[in-house]
Specification:
By secondary structure, the protein is mainly beta. The chain has one domain: Porin (Beta Barrel), CATH 2.40.160. The protein is 7% helix and 71% strand. The chain has one helix and eleven strands, in the order αβββββββββββ. It has an eight-stranded antiparallel β-barrel with strand order 1-2-3-4-5-7-8-11. A two-stranded antiparallel sheet has the order 9-10. β5 and β6 form a beta hairpin. The radius of gyration is 22 Å and the shape is elongated.
Length: 221
């Protein structure tokens, strides 16, 4: 009985929007990363990096859409400690899934607002250190969480043409959890291997500003 009830609910929801519109497209742009840092000496300064992927819209009702994107993003940061003569570079690659509610205004030219959540999967990470003019590098993948979560909000404008839609948007993501995992990792050069440690009280939270432009094609259902 419960299974039949759930099936009925699912079918009812689908029938409520039998004229739903789906849009699919591609996006590309720039990502600027900032960081909320605790405990780590010297802090981190983010740098601009490319961002690209796919975008999907599904109409919930007139002017209201659920938007989902699949984005490949590289987070790059520099930091260090002048007292200890240390410079570092941090580079992490994420596959991100931002899901937002998007409300459009207008007819042909459509400003819109959006708000939702962001899930990021850590694909790879590495670090480079320069200590007392000696260069080291190491794999940092195990010290970055596999999945991290954030809150996303922003807005943009789209322009409807007969067969496709052009858009430009900006969003800001506030990471809600520490991306670091406590533990030891190695850095090395051609002659020396050193061990560094991420402590439990070392905290880095992402703050990402993303500017994207793209094209979408409406598909009627």
């Amino acid at each position: 009985m419960k299974k039949l009830f759930l099936l009925g609910v699912i079918l009812s929801i689908g029938l409520l929007n039998t004229k739903a519109q789906v849009r699919v497209g591609m996006v590309g742009g720039l990502l600027s990363s900032d960081f909320k840092v605790e405990s780590i000496d010297g802090g981190l300064d983010g740098k601009l990096r490319p961002s690209f992927g796919a975008s999907f819209d599904y109409s919930v009702q007139e002017n209201l859409f659920v938007n989902a994107k699949v984005l490949y993003q590289s987070v790059f940061a520099e930091g260090g400690s002048a007292l200890e003569d240390i410079d570092l570079e941090f580079n992490a690659k994420f596959l991100e899934l931002p899901i937002t509610l998007k409300y459009e205004f207008g007819t042909t030219v459509n400003p819109y607002l959006m708000m939702g959540v962001n899930l990021a999967y850590n694909m790879d990470a590495d670090v480079k250190f320069t200590m007392n003019n000696v260069d080291f590098e190491g794999d940092f993948s195990e010290q970055v969480k596999d999945f991290t979560f954030g809150i996303l909000f922003g807005g943009g404008v789209s322009y409807k043409l007969p067969n496709f839609i052009l858009f430009l948007e900006g969003s800001y993501m506030i990471g809600t959890d520490n991306i670091l995992v406590a533990g030891e990792y190695e850095i090395r050069n051609s002659t020396i291997t050193l061990t560094n440690t991420i402590d439990d009280n070392d905290v880095v939270k992402l703050r990402n500003l993303n500017v994207l432009a793209g094209i979408m094609i409406p598909l009627g259902l």
